[in-house]
Amino acid sequence: MTEIDFTPLKGIKFNCLDGCGFCCSFPAEVREWEKYFPMILEKNGTAFRKWENGHSCLNGIFTMRQQDEKGACIFLCDDKKCGIYDIRSLLCRIFPVKFFFGWRLQLYPSMSCRGFSKDEKSDMMRLGKETIEELSPGFIENMLKESKAMYADLSVRLENYIAPDVLQSMLLEYAGEMEFSLSNISSASRAGFEAELSSDCFIDLPSYLTKDLQWQVFKLENGLVRRILLKQTGETEHVDSMLYSCLTVRTLSSDAVEAVKRYMRLITSTDHFIGMVYRKAVEQKTPDVQLLLLAIAELENVKELFLLKADLLSKFEKQEYIDEKIIEDTIVLFDGYLATVPALGMIL
After folding, report:
1. Is 276 a member of any domain?
2. Does a structural domain hold residue 126?
3. Residue 56 reports pLDDT greater than 70
4. Span 155-183, mean pLDDT?
5. Which of the residues 143, 160, 184, 272 has the least number of beta carbons within 10 Å of its own beta carbon?
6. How far apart are CA 32 and CA 145, in angstroms?
7. Per-residue pLDDT tens over the stretch 29-46
8. How many domains does the chain have?
9. Is residue 104 part of a domain?
10. CA geometry: angle at 114 spanning 110 and 120, to 5°?
């Protein structure tokens, strides 16, 4: 029987927001075998762009075309509703649930949307179980066969190998006790943040959904971080800017600290994060790599990048310190980035 873990969805509520469409600003993947693939092509013969990927399990994947290459999906209407809702692609149907195929199949939430709230009635656990029905048993088994093969020889390749469930348990304990030395953000984390802000590829820049459901993008140019409004047509408009040198992590309120800890525990509970650690360990090609130390360093790096983005938002919002609301906003800004980090395994 296929092992499916729903743990990261537990206790999370979600409800799709009218007038948002933020998920439609990313080029959704579409697989050639999907039920509605030919029907979408009938609507628009140029709807898809071929996605080149060397992995056999990912052959036959396309992405939805965007307006002007960086705006919304070409099927998003002016009212930000899907123009092909009844025949939309699989990824559009299951969002905000994500699937990670590693040593098992795990479902977890994509938190880059503002539809998450303690007050909403739609339970993510129920939504996750419903989305399983969108995948055929054969597809799940094939994906798991491929992903498990990636993990099969880790105990041989890594001298200090720790089983994934054990490693995850250790990291969850560490995440619950993380400290926040706000004045000691590492140079590596700062360099990583600067590189992300400086990307030449527009879709790789930090993107963000505001409280009033505007799509925004942040870009570093000539020492200034520009806040850019992205329209669904692909047009952009400068909003404001700030000196990049002004970024120094501010004081966090006690509520903000607890909110960051909760988010770090959620990240650590995802198999995707564990897959990120294994991938880095394998890429180092050092047989005696200390896996737990590497995992802790990776989690600390994630925390520091998160705090830098929280500082960015607090500066643009002209707040003197980082409160729980800024942390909630930062999760929206940060989670989309995390989903793009390569891992040992496969994300759907």
Report:
1. no
2. yes
3. no
4. 88
5. 184
6. 20
7. 888 888 899 999 999 988
8. 1
9. yes
10. 95
> Would you say residue 261 has pLDDT above 90?
yes
Measured CA to CA, the distance from residue 316 to residue 310 in angstroms comes to 10
SS3 track for the chain: CCCEECHHHCCCEECCCCCCCHHHHCCCEEECCCCCHHHHHHHCCCCEEECCCCCHHHCCEEEECEHHHCCCECCECCCCCECCHHHCCHHHHHCCEEEEECCCEEEEECCCCCCECCCCCCEHHHHHHHHHCCCCHHHHHHHHHHHHHHHCCHHHHCCCCCCHHHHHHHHHHHHCCCCCCCCCCCHHHHHHHHHHHCCCCHHHCCEEECCCCCEEEEEEECCEEEEEEECCCCCEEEEEEEEHHHCCCCCECHHHHHHHHHHHHHHHCCHHHHHHHHHHHHHHCCCCCCHHHHHHHHHHHHHHHHHHHHHHHHHHCCCCCECHHHHHHHHHHHHHHHCCCCCCCEEC
Q: What pLDDT is stored for residue 59 in this prediction?
A: 59
Q: Whole-angstrom Cα distance, residue 54 to residue 236?
A: 33
pTM of the model: 0.91
Q: Name residues whose C-beta falls within 8 Å of residue 191's C-beta, 6 or more positions apart in sequence.
A: none
Token readout for 107 is: 């479902």
- Least confident interval from 52-66, 158-172, 326-340: 52-66
Q: What is the largest CA-CA distance in the chain?
A: 56
Q: How far apart are the first and last CA of the chain?
A: 20
Over residues 319-330, mean pLDDT: 93
Cβ atoms of 160 and 291 within 8 Å: the answer is yes
In-domain check, residue 157:
no
Cα separation, 123 vs 109, whole angstroms: 11
CA–CA separation, 143 and 264 (whole Å)? 27
